Amino acid sequence: MSSPFDERKYHSLLKGLEVSEVMLKNVLSDNFEFRIDSEFFKKEMLSTIEFIKNKPHEVLKNLVLDIKSFGAYSLCNDINFIEKNEHSIPFIRCLNIKNGVVNFEELLFIDKESNNLLWKSEIKPLMVLVTMSGTVGNATVALEHWKYPINSNQDIAKIETRKINPYFLATFLNSRYGYTQMIRLQAGAVQQHLYLSQIEKIIVPKINSSFQNNIEKVVQVSHSKLERSLLLYGQAESLLLDVIGLKEFKSSEKSTNIKSLKNSFLATGRLDAEYYQPKYEEIIRKVKKQPYDILGNLVTIKKSIEPGSDVYTDDGLPFIRVSDYNKFGVSTPEKYLSEYYCNMNAARLESLYPAKETILFSKDGSVGMAYMLRKNMQAVTSGAILHLTVKDKTKVLPEYLTLALNSKVVRQQAERDVGGSIILHWRINEIENVVVPVVDYTIQQQIANLVEESFALRLESERLLEEAKGMVEREIEERVAS
Question: Is residue 140 part of a domain?
Fold first, then answer.
């Protein structure tokens, strides 16, 4: 004989579990793709969205003039990518938008004809840009003083606002209440994707225009500090190139070189013609005319690990991959290592935590990318990232060395060594023999000071963007106006 159903006991059992109880009649509420997977009904997501619904709100579609992306995917075949020049047009991809800003350091460029063809994806001032693929839901504003025209790929939504401040909208989308909705709506088995029809349905709380304008002011100050940061970093780069005589240096365009067997294969073990292009020899000769050393003499090199995708989780110990950092910093990683794996390998993993002033240096993928940590990091980097530690700081400052590693001096050596590979891989013995200029210590200090001032401004810029998000979240939670 079955016991009677005890509803209170049932709900007490559910409490604390990642279980959502949804009435059948509510399963299709706001469920336009007829999702029945558990991800769509996560407790946190449901409670966040329910909270917004209980405030005065509007759907995004009613607040904007247009939301568009790219047009037909077949147009990708007609894009002509070119080297950066005075006529090239920046082409923004999803990976260029992160943490509320656009990284203009890693752009592709297209020609004028491609830009005319891709008229639907051209970016205009004050558009809100939202990533729709890969890392979904990163938003930013196209600033009015950017040098236009600028275009973008098929996975970036461009929102022209009408009844809402674009700076406020981008900040809301990056906040917990906007980002949660986008993450909930994303779909895809291998790579997650967000569709324009889903973006239109995002619920936006009604916030008075005065508050929206205040958010705009905070975000604009943030962008101003970031631009000042980039200017200072550029001055540091320029100072280095000026001192070593490479500021106006232009690589040779000659495509042929004559080498004896003794000075080619027997010396380097390389037979590929690309390795011996004159442009590589010219820049090395230029550097060697003044004080220099090879990297292996300047740093100790420590390798990390590659634990395998089977131990990746959505939380746990941060696992930093090449895609999670650039020369300006480390972003929130997409992958973490499972608690079980960490417990089983605790001592080994702890020994791999990179310490303050460690230079992260990529050897696979985007090779030759360097970033110096400003504090100890309780995280593990992938096997594609080497840990460099300066041996003698009275000879070379880590801040200076990091900038030198990111300069065209080392970039061209990386290009030479890995050229021709499908999957780029820079061997450690080649990295150890990289030629590095060692300028006067006083100049190194000047460069280090510019770099550190640049990073201080960048941190302040990031803090202000976080402050703006916090302001939006508190306004939603405390006193949403009609």
Answer: yes
